[in-house]
Amino acid sequence: xxxxxxxxxxxxxxxxxxxxxxxxxxxxxxxxxxxxxxxxxxxxxxxxxxxxxxxxxxxxxxxxxxxxxxxxxxxxxxxxxxxxxxxxxxxxxxxxxxxxxxxxxxxxxxxxxxxxxxxxxxxxxxxxxxxxxxxxxxxxxxxxxxxxxxxxxxxxxxxxxxxxxxxxxxxxxxxxxxxxxxxxxxxxxxxxxxxxxxxxxxxxxxxxxxxxxxxxxxxxxxxxxxxxxxxxxxxxxxxxxxxxxxxxxxxxxxxxxxxxxxxxxxxxxxxxxxxxxxxxxxxxxxxxxxxxxxxxxxxxxxxxxxxxxxxxxxxxxxxxxxxxxxxxxxxxxxxxxxxxxxxxxxxxxxxxxxxxxxxxxxxxxxxxxxxxxxxxxxxxxxxxxxxxxxxxxxxxxxxxxxxxxxxxxxxxxxxxxxxxxxxxxxxxxxxxxxxxxxxxxxxxxxxxxxxxxxxxxxxxxxxxxxxxxxxxxxxxxxxxxxxxx
Length: 485
Ligand SMILES: *Cc1c(COP(=O)(O)O)cnc(C)c1O
Hints:
Elements: H1 3-11, H2 17-25, H3 29-39, H4 47-66, H5 79-94, E1 102-103, E2 107-109, H6 120-130, E3 138-139, E4 144-145, H7 150-160, E5 164-168, H8 171-183, E6 187-191, H9 204-211, E7 214-218, H10 226-232, E8 237-243, H11 259-268, E9 273-278, H12 296-301, E10 306-310, E11 321-325, H13 327-335, H14 346-358, H15 362-368, H16 370-375, H17 379-395, E12 401-413, E13 422-431, H18 436-445, E14 450-451, E15 453-455, E16 458-462, H19 470-484
Parallel strand pairs: 1-14, 2-12, 6-7, 6-8, 8-9, 9-10
Antiparallel strand pairs: 3-4, 5-11, 10-11, 12-13, 13-16, 15-16
Bound molecules: pyridoxal-5'-phosphate.
Residues 170-172, 175, 198, 202, 243-244, 246, 276, 278-279, 310, 321, 415 line the site of pyridoxal-5'-phosphate.
C-alpha cells in the first residue's frame, strides 16, 4: 500500500452523531420502490434495472454522508429528491455505453473514435442483411453449402488485380494467419527498418513469435540492401516479408529494397514474398494533393504472393483484414483451421462488399466514402463550415462566449501518412468562468459528446471531421452549457 493511502486511513474520522442521524434517515430500497410504483417517473423500466438503480442511489447517499459532504441534510431524502436521483440513475443505466459522438479532432481515421464511418448506403445494406437470412455460406446456383468469402472474392480480385482473395476479422489477424500458414516453425526475413510497432501493442516481432515463425532481422535501422536478404536465405527460410512502416517515417541516409526486387529474389530461391501494406488504399491520393502512397493495385502488380491490409483505415470500410495475392498462397491460408478463430462475420462482409462496390468508380468512391471525402475536402469547404459554426455561436449573443477562427493542420490518423499536413480551419471557444479543461469535460458530457482539443486555453474544434448537420448540435451544446453552468 502506498504511504499516502495509509496516511489517509489514519486520519479517517469516526462517524459523528449528526452523520449517524442522517444515515438512519436513508430509506430502504422497498420504500423507494413503492414511491416509484406510485409515480412511475420513467416508464417501462425492467424491474432488475430499477432495483439496482435505487440501490446504487441509496449507496451513493450513504457514501456522501460518511464522507462528511456538507450539502447532505434531511431535504436530500424528500420523496421528490429521491425519485429524481433514482430516475437519473435509471436513465443512465438504460443508455447504451457505445454511442455516436462528434469527432472535432480533425483526425480522420481516429482509432479511438471508431476509425472509419460507413457510407449511409453501406450501413443500410448491413441492416438489411443482418436482420434477415442470407446466402452467407450457401451457393444459390448449386443449392449446396458455399464459401463465406465468395461474396467479396471476385470484387477484390477485380479492383486489386490479384488472382485470389480472402478476408478475416482485422489486419493484425491477417498478418498472423499468413505467417502461421506460410512460416510456422521456419524463418521469416525482415529488414530492421520495418520491425514496427503499430499501436495497441501490435509489434511485428511479437506477432511473428506468436505465429510460431522465427524472425531473422537483416540490414540496419536506416539501410537494408538486397544482398542482406540474399545473405540470410537458408534451408529454414520460409518467407521474405516487407512491412509498411505506417505511423513513422525515415528521412536522410536511407535505403530499402523495392518490393519488385524482393519478388525477383524470392522467385530465384523459390520463396514466397509477403507485403503487410497496413492501411491499404485503392485510390492514388497524390492525385488529390496528398503524399504518394503505393496503392493496393500497384503493390499487387509488383507480384508478391501475399498482400494484407486493413478494411477500415484509408479504405474507409468496416474493420476487417483483407488478404489478396497468388492463388496457391491464398488457398493455403484459407485452409488453415485457425482461420475459424478470426473469421469475418456477416455484418462485416455485407459492409465490405457494399464498400468495395463503390470503388469500381473512383469518383464515386471519393465522394461516397466518408474517409476519402474528408481526406480530400477542399479547404474552402472546411472554411465555410467553420464560418457557419462561428456565426451561430456569435448569434447566441452571450458575452461570456468568445469564438475565434484558427488555421491548423488535420491528421490522416490510423497510422497512415504520418508526415501529411492537411490544411484546415478550426473554431476555438472560450467561456468566461469556465477553464478550457472544464469546457472540454462538459463538451464530452454533451449528448452526443463533442470531442475536440485544448490549445492556448481554448476548446478547439477542427471542422474537417465535423459533418454539416452536426453544426446545429454543437451550437445547442454550447447554449446549454451557457444556461446551466
Ligand atoms: C494498422 C496496421 C496493422 C494492423 O491492422 P488492424 O486492421 O488494425 O488490425 C498491421 N500492420 C500494419 C503495417 C498496420 O499499419
